[in-house]
From TrEMBL:
GO terms for biological process: regulation of DNA-templated transcription. Signal peptide: none annotated. Transmembrane segments: none annotated. This is LuxR family transcriptional regulator.
Length: 98
């Protein structure tokens, strides 16, 4: 069952942070660029993970790169899941069977 917060779209600030993550910037650099506290950026990252139903920083990085490449619309939970599944399938093909 999804909570209300998980069902919401990303805020403007969360989308900005996601795009900056996709450009390869770390949390400290993002905080400096946006002139906000380091821990504020961490909280936004945490909120993004929850809203997009992601579990790891690697998943967040995948979505962030996708968002940086195609910024007009923020990813939804469904598009984030689709992107992660596609990348997992691609990685399996590269590695081959276990």
């Amino acid at each position: 069952m999804m909570s209300r917060q998980q069902n919401k779209k990303l805020t403007t600030r969360e989308t900005q942070i996601l795009e900056l993550l996709g450009q390869g910037l770390d949390t400290r650099h993002i905080a400096a660029i946006l002139d906000i506290a380091y821990y504020t950026v961490r909280k936004h990252r945490s909120n993004i993970l929850i809203k997009l139903q992601l579990n790891t920083a690697a998943q967040l990085a995948c979505v962030a790169v996708q968002t940086a490449l195609f910024p007009p619309s923020a990813p939804t939970s469904a598009s984030a899941s689709k992107l992660i599944n596609n990348n997992t399938e691609s990685a399996s093909r590269i590695r081959g069977p276990p």
